[in-house]
Amino acid sequence: MLRYHTIPVTPFQQNCSLLWCDRTQEAVLIDPGGDLGALRAAVQQRKLKLVALWLTHAHIDHAGGAGQLAREEGLPIIGPHQGDQFWIDGMPQQSQMFGFPPAEHFTPARWLEDGDTLTLGESQVGVRHCPGHTPGHVVFHAAEIKRCFVGDVLFAGSIGRTDFPGGNHQQLLDSIRTRLWPMGDDTVFIPGHGPESNFGEERRFNPYVRGT
């Protein structure tokens, strides 16, 4: 069975998620944007074996710590979709623009595509490509625990910004409707910022996507 713990990091309070298999104790960090000391402490406290870093997209608050952590711990970076290559290439500029510590450049060990499956311990996690916030944004669907790690696609009561380079509002709405909603109303999602919610709640009450 998969378990997870959310750790807000960076001045943007980005939700980095520690996800692990409780049978093998193998773990990944989803979107290690920064505050690496806190992330390492969370792993060590639970006596987990960190095996990879997974990225939903390549904005600085989600990916800024990935290069350094991967280098220091000898870990592969998995994701996002190759559509975010230009965001990775511009990581140093992102650091300067938003006042973050200098971010190391990195090359993912594996780009992700819609429909891919990732293995963590004895569990499988599905990948859906959900462009709109960024062209290469993906989400991680842990169906066995009815959880989805959605990055900045969807929030409790809101949706991701689409005014950054490569953003597309209609594409984001289409991603939510065609990729997220079919996971089921009872699926709880962990957004990139703010509290958890579930897809059913957002379909009913989120002013940006209700009724879709």
Automatic annotation (TrEMBL):
Cofactor(s) listed in the protein's UniProt record: Zn(2+)
InterPro entries: MBL_Glyoxalase_II, Metallo-B-lactamas, RibonucZ/Hydroxyglut_hydro
One Pfam assignment: Lactamase_B
Residues covered by the Metallo-beta-lactamase domain: 13-193
Stored SUPFAM superfamilies: Metallo-hydrolase/oxidoreductase
Top-level taxon of the source organism: Bacteria
Keywords annotated in UniProt: Hydrolase, Metal-binding, Zinc
MF (Gene Ontology): hydrolase activity; metal ion binding
UniProt key word Zinc: yes
Protein name per its UniProtKB record: MBL fold metallo-hydrolase
UniProt organism field: Azohydromonas caseinilytica
